[in-house]
Write a structure and sequence with these properties.
homodimer, 360 residues, alpha/beta, elongated, DNA-binding
DNA sequence: TATTCAGTTGTAAACGTTTTCTAGACAAAG
DNA sequence: CTTTGTCTAGAAAACGTTTACAACTGAATA
């Protein structure tokens, strides 16, 4: 009934039509388009001709249903609105298509509920692998992926499951370069604005900062360790908190570039100048960082490397059925990019908030 | 063989398992989970209990295969790296899930080749509708969607096909407000940096600008109509071209916010101040616009409205099988948001480039 | 010339759903 | 008590592929 031309809709071109048109069986068509080497060249040519003439392409759903493989890679990020993630997505997609995969994106907006929905969607669409570039994942969600034998890759959070691998970013090196850079300029009072501390990666960046400070012989002031949320607004708010303090730092490091841009804005509103009044360093090196005013000194984390490593690991892990994963842990380098938001500290003698000073 | 527990893999929980567990037929399970009202309450309860206990969810591929509907909406954008698009994507996804759909994203990077791949992917995944938020689409790609009876929605480019509708943004109103604002401040020499002119929307924004200038009694100088490409780099380059001219405008309008940020950077590099030396207005009102230094005066185009209208139109069009589309054309409002990049023109008397002046 | 073997092609059985259609069950009406 | 009608559950046929397996071909060997 459905195939009848009576109902007005164009006749669906499926593998059967192609087979008929090329005068071969559907199995031969299938083998041809999947590049199975045993098909006769003459028949293959006929098939390709038919494919071309009928403008045929296979139905992904049917293909996925029978083969069990969707050729889909999931990518879960915390916030698509943070410019770091689109850049990551772009690179991830590039890497995925290079391997014949497509991507399904999920943005959690830091909400566990949304995360759950994302995970479920990934499961429903039967992704062949999933990169989880955010934290706050309930274990039971991951269990399901493990049960289905779907490889996963995380940032920073290690796991010893055979199909789970981790991308470990060398935060310490980059942050250390940043702290050293600031120390050499003469800064001794450095604040740090972290991301939401429930995120592993944010936690790690913060503790790396503390370590690096000690390494540089500098003491960390708890008042200057502010928890932000990786957004523009969060950066602004955090800086406002610092400005409300009686004692000011001379420099502030941020857990990501967006936060740094928010800080710049807070400083602008307070008529404070960067780097004259405060030095500022970001993290990520988003493309935009080159365009802030003044251009942002920041720690570069190559999202191209990140994306390529993630895809490579996923694909390698999904292919091997048994044993330890090949890519268990890959290291991602970071390094400081010095631009124009860092300079000499304004007032090396006093750390008093000028407004408080007046009061006294 | 596959179902045997011997092979070590966990037994797949499919609709059959649920049926067995609930002691009903698979048809009843299907009807229950699809909320068909005719199933007996007792049986339904048993089914839901089984679903819950087995942690079952349906296989999307199988579902899509038989029903012909993928519950997937395609969204093709020009460049995921431009912050306007992530914001759009976010809203689009929100609107889509609210209607029980998911989204498949394609980013063309302005390359026809990539666009073709995107379109093909959408077709292969059998999207139920596609929003094309970019231009440069070959007609033959669209034909295929039409042949498959898949509704489409475009920005700005009208079409009279029954399943194609268009989102028409009221550029003129916003741009006119911008020009008026500048004119009231005393600006008479206004430049415009467009997007790539092969894009309809860029073309429209540019011609709207010309019209609005005439409307304000201002003449447009061809030298100050620069073609950009909607990127940071493009904005910077365009502004550098303007600065190289003998005669300078006192204000510049940009086809999007990213361009404006690029312009700010070029000005910063040239040690020129905004708005003291130049007034600047952007377009889109990306969230970031509030955070540039100084904050950017820009024309707001609500991407929430855009996204919601797009999804609504798509869904409405896919449901009605015959006749004219319900949503043939929806209007999206724009309006000027005045922040701090616009001010009085510096030198109302002379438009000479200060450097050229010295030469003379 | 008969037999084996390798190499290809075609047939048919999956894959996990939705959905049409048939068959019961039960109530109301004759 | 039979007939008719109204529901609802279950059986089975799709959906468009892949792929195991059977069947065929022709060449090489005995």
């Amino acid at each position: 009934m459905k195939r009848s031309p009576k109902d007005g809709t164009a006749p669906r071109i499926d593998i059967r039509s192609v087979a008929q048109h090329a005068r071969v069986s559907i199995a031969t068509v299938s083998r041809t388009i999947n590049h199975v080497p045993t098909v006769d060249a003459t028949l293959a040519a006929r098939v390709w001709k038919a494919v071309d003439e009928l403008n045929y392409f296979p139905n992904t759903q049917a293909r996925a249903l029978v083969s069990g493989k969707s050729k889909l890679l999931g990518l879960i990020v915390s916030e698509i609105t943070n410019p770091f993630f689109p850049e990551l997505i772009q690179e991830f997609e590039l890497a995925a298509v290079a391997h014949g995969y497509e991507i399904l994106i999920g943005s959690t907006n830091y909400e566990p509920k949304t995360m759950e929905l994302c995970a479920r969607r990934m499961l429903e669409r039967k992704v062949d692998g999933v990169a989880i570039m955010t934290f706050g994942v309930e274990e039971f969600l991951l269990d399901r992926f493990t049960a289905e034998d779907i490889p996963m890759i995380f940032m920073d959070v290690p796991s010893k499951h055979p199909k789970r691998s981790t991308l470990s970013v060398d935060y310490r090196a980059g942050i250390n370069e940043g702290v050293q850079h600031l120390a050499v300029l003469g800064h001794r009072r450095i604040a740090f604005i972290s991301g939401p501390l429930k995120l592993w990666s944010a936690e790690i960046r913060r503790s790396s900062f503390s370590d690096c400070m000690r390494l540089a012989g500098l003491s960390v002031n708890e008042d200057w360790l502010i928890e932000g949320d990786h957004t523009l607004d969060g950066g602004r708010d955090a800086m406002q908190k610092i400005l409300a303090l009686d004692h000011w730092p001379t420099a502030v490091m941020c857990s990501n570039d967006l936060t740094a841009i928010g800080v710049q804005h807070a400083l602008f509103e307070a008529s404070l100048k960067v780097p004259d009044d405060f030095s500022l360093v970001g993290f990520d090196d988003v493309h935009l960082a080159e365009y802030t005013i003044p251009p942002l000194t920041t720690v570069r984390m190559s999202c191209k490397d990140l994306a390529q490593a993630a895809v490579a690991s996923l694909i390698s892990n999904m292919h091997q059925t048994e044993g330890k994963p090949q890519h268990d842990r890959t290291n991602i380098q970071t390094r400081l990019i010095v631009r124009q938001t860092t300079g000499l500290p304004k007032d090396a003698l006093s750390d008093l908030n000028p407004k408080s000073k007046k009061k006294k």
